[in-house]
Specification:
The chain has about 230 residues and is mainly β. It is built from no helices and 22 strands.
Length: about 230
């Protein structure tokens, strides 16, 4: 088994008038040659957007972009005509494919929105742009590992990659096992809240841990904790 630990306080950080953003991997003005991604996982940004503010219309291509609001709501519009609100407990994916332009604005006028935005390199390039979002009942991940993004599961949102995203809300003391889905995949675990131990490595809130050359993860919630597992080709 091999691991790489990214402590929360070692992430890149940028602050603007309307945005506070932490980068687990090189992005924008933050560049670290040792943090160019984890396999096909290229970006994991932890964003806080001020009320009524956001990203104006901008283009993407050949990237799988997953957005997970942690609280509040985000207004998404894109060049395919989509006009959607993404809320806490939703998961959105946009396959940029051959090219798409979109905007993301805080839908609330009186509170910030917090979200994770994750970019994954695609399995196939130049596909027709695709959009999907789905709401997941938080009860379904209480002391369970719930798949929310997958290439092969109709209950999840679809991704153009051999990648699986899972969310878990574990009460203190709960232990769970997770089997990596595909040979030559690894898992990047990101602690959204609380403290947990994964394969013997203690993690605090917003820490990230890459794990590979193993088949299973052994997860123990040291406190009530929420975690994201990204099972990704290396």
């Amino acid at each position: 088994m091999k691991t790489i630990l990214h402590k929360a306080n070692t992430r890149g950080y940028n602050s603007f008038a309307w945005l506070n953003t932490y980068h687990s991997f090189s992005f924008g003005q933050y560049y670290n040659p040792e943090r160019m991604g984890f396999g096909t996982l290229r970006v994991l940004n932890d964003d806080t957007i001020s009320a009524g503010m956001g990203f104006g219309k901008h283009p993407h291509d050949n990237m799988e972009i997953v957005t997970i609001p942690l609280n509040g709501a985000l207004h998404h519009k894109d060049s395919t005509g989509r006009d959607e609100i993404i809320r806490q407990h939703d998961v959105q994916i946009m396959s940029a494919g051959s090219g798409i332009a979109h905007s993301e604005i805080n839908a609330n006028k009186d509170q910030a929105v917090k979200l994770l935005q994750i970019w994954v390199l695609p399995k196939e390039e130049n596909i027709e742009p695709r959009y999907q979002q789905k709401s997941f009942n938080p009860k379904d991940r209480l002391n369970q590992v719930l798949t929310v993004v997958a290439p092969d599961d109709d209950e999840a949102v679809w991704i153009n990659q051999n990648a699986w995203f899972s969310l878990a809300n574990l009460l203190e003391g709960i232990e769970k096992e997770y089997t990596i889905r595909k040979k030559n995949n690894g898992v990047y675990a990101f602690v959204i809240s609380g403290n947990t131990t994964i394969n013997g490595v203690a993690l605090l809130e917003r820490d990230g841990l890459g794990i590979w050359e193993t088949e299973q993860l052994f997860i123990k919630a040291d406190t009530n904790t929420e975690i994201l597992l990204i099972d990704i080709p290396l």
